[in-house]
Request: fold
Amino acid sequence: MAEYLVNNRSQTDLLLFWIQRWNQASLRDKVLIIKDHMISVDFIQKSEPTVSKPLLIAAMQDMGDVGSIVIDFINSNLNTSIFREVQPSYPAYVIDNGGYIDVPEDKWDYRYAKDIIVFGGGSGQPSSTEELNVLCHDVINVAKKYSTRFIYTFGGFHTQKPIDGEPKTFVTTTSKDLTEQVRKLGILTTPEASIITGFNGLILGFAKMNGIQGIGLYAELNEPKIPQYRSAKSILKTLEKLTYRKFGDTSDLDSMAKDVESRSSGKRFDPDKSYST
Reply:
């Protein structure tokens, strides 16, 4: 690989220099070096949470906004408090206001309540694979720091089969033994092999690689571009079974689902339509 010179230092010398600086705490929370690139992400610690071996729930916006709907619901109902903030280095999109654009100020929060840490919600995901890996790595570091027992994540399960009644939630886990325990609770597991992309899948892989048990909950949906409040409700009910704790009254989700459905009632579901995720 060809080397370039910066201030009379070769690329190799610079890489060694940054690796040495990596041990300094002030830099470690700012920069991750991947191959030849430095990916800058700001991690701002605002306080220390008072938690003991908490559950960690982490999900980001995905198909049907399912991940962010669930996270925002839990934060609201548990009255969580922010203790750490993540700010991406570059935006993943711009907002067209009808003739002029705005650049979004995306950020994602770590919040906590009694025996629980909640990460994510809001809008968007990291703009690159490198930033996604940095973010997953930070979630794992937070999990280890506070002796997290379990990591839960969730998102949408896109199906072309029209949903009859309430959406089902399917679960996958980080081990066969854990999957068997879930099945004994009468909870459905994912029906076939597939690839789960984005934060709401990759975080399970990071959990497994770091010896932390993880469970992913994915609710059926037909229309990925429309907020899926019924799918979010299905996930919350399944999460309550898995964690033996309540997360709040979901009647508001029913109301929001009816409102979305009334506004989109003229649109017919097309199983052959392609969607971006």
